[in-house]
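User: Hello! My lab partner asked me to get a predicted holo structure for this protein. The small molecule is zinc ion, SMILES included with the sequence. Please write out the structure tokens.
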Amino acid sequence: MRATGRLLASLLAIFCLATTPIARGVTSSAGWAWPVLGPVIRGFDLPDDPYASGHRGIDIAASVGTVIVAPADGTVSFAGPVGGLLFLTINHGGGLSSTYSWLTADLVRKGDVVTRGQPVALTGWGHAGAPVPHLHFGVKLDGAYVDPLAYLGPITLAAFVRLAPIP
Ligand SMILES: [Zn+2]
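Assistant: Hello! Below are the structure tokens for the protein in complex with zinc ion.
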């Protein structure tokens, strides 16, 4: 009987996950919208030393040229190239900002007011030499990098089913 109970609990969990409504730019009220929908292929790894290597964001797999949407309302504080590579930063107020790295296009300009779900940029390959194209997505709170997953709402099986295959 206990095994049956566990099975029922598992099925219920899967059912809840699969039936949670989600669409591009839409999540539960608990969190930000995902800037792109995809599996996280590399997690956040804050080094102890601010100058040490680590991973100051998460990598979300996405085909090159995927539309990135603003995860929350904000104002564009940076959009443009640095050293020939394209970046975007959105200031969300309250000390929070989000950063998008190695893009193929910025769709907004510095000073633009953006709303949650609005297209703001197109993804590029991501980290040089990475095996799978992705968006590097970072979040800063009061100037310090924090784990973006703490701000993103749940992503569901239904969202993964709709993902385009990665080339
Ligand atoms: Zn990264």
